[in-house]
Amino acid sequence: MSDDLQRRIEEQKAEIDRLTRRISELETDSNVPSVAKVEQPVDVTPIDQADVTLRRLVQRIAMILQAEKIVIMFHEREMGDLKGIPPAFGIDEAHLSSFRVRATHGISGKVFREGEPMIYQDIETIPEAREEPFGLMHVTNGVCVPLIIEKRDEENRVVERNVIGVLHAFNKKHSEDFNDEDVRLLERMAKNVGSIIANLQMYRELEGEKEELAQTFESLTAGLLLVSTERRILQINATARAIFSCPDESIGKNLDEIVKDAAFISAIDKTLTGEEIGKVETHVTIGTVERIYESQFASVLGQDGKGIGVVAILADVTEIRNIDRMKSSFVAMASHELRTPLTAIKGFSSTLLEGLDDELYGIEDQREFLGIVVGECDRLRRLIDDLLNTSRIEAGESLKPNYTHVDIRTLLDKVQKVQQQATTKHIIKLDVKGELPKQMVGDEDKLDQILTNLLNNAIKYAPNGGDVLIHAKVDGEFLEVGVRDQGLGIPKDHLTKVFERFHRVNNEDNRKIYGTGLGLFLVKHLVQEVHFGKIWVESELGKGSDFIFRIPTNIDIEEAKRRSD
Ligand code: ADP
Known about the structure:
The protein is an alpha+beta fold. The protein folds into four domains: 3-16 and 220-316, PAS domain (Beta-Lactamase, 2-Layer Sandwich), CATH 3.30.450; 47-212, 2-Layer Sandwich (Beta-Lactamase); 321-394, Helix Hairpins; 404-564, Heat Shock Protein 90 (2-Layer Sandwich). The protein is built from 14 helices and 18 strands. Adenosine-5'-diphosphate (ADP) binds at residues 457-458, 461, 485, 487-490, 498, 503-505, 510, 515-521, 545. Adenosine-5'-diphosphate (ADP) binds next to helix 12 and helix 13.
């Protein structure tokens, strides 16, 4: 063996050692759980080092083999292609893209499939070469070896062998030929190239997964916080940052710096020491609204079973809590609403009964008492209907519309008359602008129910009386009807909420006015889902409210049926 070759082999051995060290460094690095990695101060990422190492290795191969050009071709599994990838030597990397061949074709394909090296002195004599752009690249001769990665067991026996691509050396310098020695050298170096590429690949995949995970965390609607055993923030997503109103750069900071909620901190500390803890509630005001978060805590263990820290998930339970609260006040209300008419019915009917024998009450009294009994029965029936309809809507069932052609003016007149009889304190007026539709498609009973409900409320929530105005007009393809009172009015922050089920405004003046908070919820459903319109309220506290709804006038029965299904 010539001295020159000996020297080259020594050089290569040193390189291989260095590489092996580098590769094992790289491997241990990728095992670190991705979240914990955030903390490590890294100047040069391993990916850059591996890139540099690979580039140097390719240069070294060109030098040792005295080759003009070196090209790595990687097998793209999805496409089934072998494709030139950087780094290359002696070839402009912009030209690398022209190195692409089906894995079944060309010299590259043959070496890849058979897993055996190939050496050729005159490219013109190799038919497969014509399937690759070697002519364009002025290739005359070359060596091609498979890029192999081997998995070994503890005793260093090869347990798995994968060909991931091929390695080309083209054009021996000084008009010489490539020889078997070159093939052996290239094969040895191909192993290093192969393992670096495989590691880079794995690293990129891990990076990708890590990125995806971070994105998922970040966009979770629940808050997520990960704290290390040293009580440092390892991960905190956007929701959690908003909850604790802490800066975007909170990672790495001490828990106490970021979170001020004592109960929450104590829960984390307890979880760190292995104590079981229940759920913790955190109340925060984001903007102007108060939100309630319920946190759950769990220890996070690394692959070795040791504790890495604690994860806290904060779920927004504001709505659930509100509904809970409203449901309990609803139960109180509903019991009252049921008891009141029952008491009246019982009271007046037993009075009548007692008076029967002695003919205590004259016909006028009897008429009055029975009138009250009938009225209270109606009230009971309405309440029960409301309850049933609400539970139907909640179960996703429709309220079974019965569409006909409705004369709106006649309907408004009727509702006004009926409601006027129910009050002496209020004057109900009707203000109609222009002509109203005489044949509008709608469910007459349900339109009646909408208006009756709004008028009932106008009377109920104007305990001191005043005018109630029903105003109606046609606006383009819509019918617009409003019920305006001069009553208590509604605070601004309740203007949309009053349409939610069970929602009642609770203030001094309202407290004595009983109700279930279901009326407007049902009205909204009847306007939106049965009549495809919308409803809103304009109000000034202490001055009065105007409930207005708009429904389309140009829908025929067929379309209404189709849309309400
Ligand atoms: P209920 O009257 O049974 O409480 P509603 O759903 O009809 O239920 O109304 C919900 C809440 O909206 C009422 O509790 C009341 O606070 C408010 N509200 C409804 N109509 C009026 C009105 N005309 N004026 C003032 N407040 C109203």
